[in-house]
Design goal:
The chain is mainly beta and about 160 residues long. Strands 1-2-3-4-5-6-7-10 form an eight-stranded antiparallel β-barrel. Strand 1 and strand 2 form a beta hairpin. The longest helix is centred in the first third of the chain and has 21 residues.
Length: about 160
């Protein structure tokens, strides 16, 4: 009988120690940051200045410029149209405008100030690097006087 009790105690001891060894620690729950991306939205703007037309199309995603197009169609002059690559800084869009005019590819800095449902083009002194790129001399000196006011229009136009 002592042998049976002793064997029972040994069996229980081995069983309990094996159970302790088999315990697995639970790893803490990992919180994943879920990024909700808003879909890309297309916004279109147009200014008609007598017989001239300026058109601006912006593709905006998560508050940033994904891509854009800009065209200047001046009466009895060569049209120039191209793409925009840039960023919003506060309520102002600063971008490189790459366009073709008279068969020559050029890059020019542009700036547009957002006012309600419109954009006002900014103008200022520029520097031409004579390699096809024109930049603003001083962005702080840009004038948004409202001469070119692009109003929001339906993109299907």
């Amino acid at each position: 009988m002592k042998k049976v009790i002793l064997l029972g105690v040994v069996f229980i001891s081995v069983f309990v120690s094996c159970k302790k060894g088999m315990k697995t620690e639970e790893s803490p729950a990992v919180l994943e940051k879920i990024v909700v991306e808003e879909p890309e939205s297309k916004e279109c703007y147009r200014a008609i200045l007598k017989k001239d037309t300026v058109s601006l199309t912006l593709n905006v995603k998560n508050g940033q410029l994904a891509s854009g197009n800009l065209s200047y169609n001046f009466f009895e002059k060569d049209k120039n149209a191209g793409t925009l690559v840039g960023e919003f800084k506060g309520d102002t869009l600063y971008a490189d405008y790459t366009f073709m005019s008279e068969g020559i590819s050029s890059v020019r800095k542009v700036a547009f100030l957002k006012k309600d449902d419109s954009y006002v083009e900014g103008f200022g002194d520029v520097i031409d690097d004579n390699k096809g790129k024109v930049t603003f001399k001083d962005k702080k000196q840009l004038q948004f006087d409202g001469n070119v006011l692009l109003s929001k229009v339906d993109c299907k136009m």
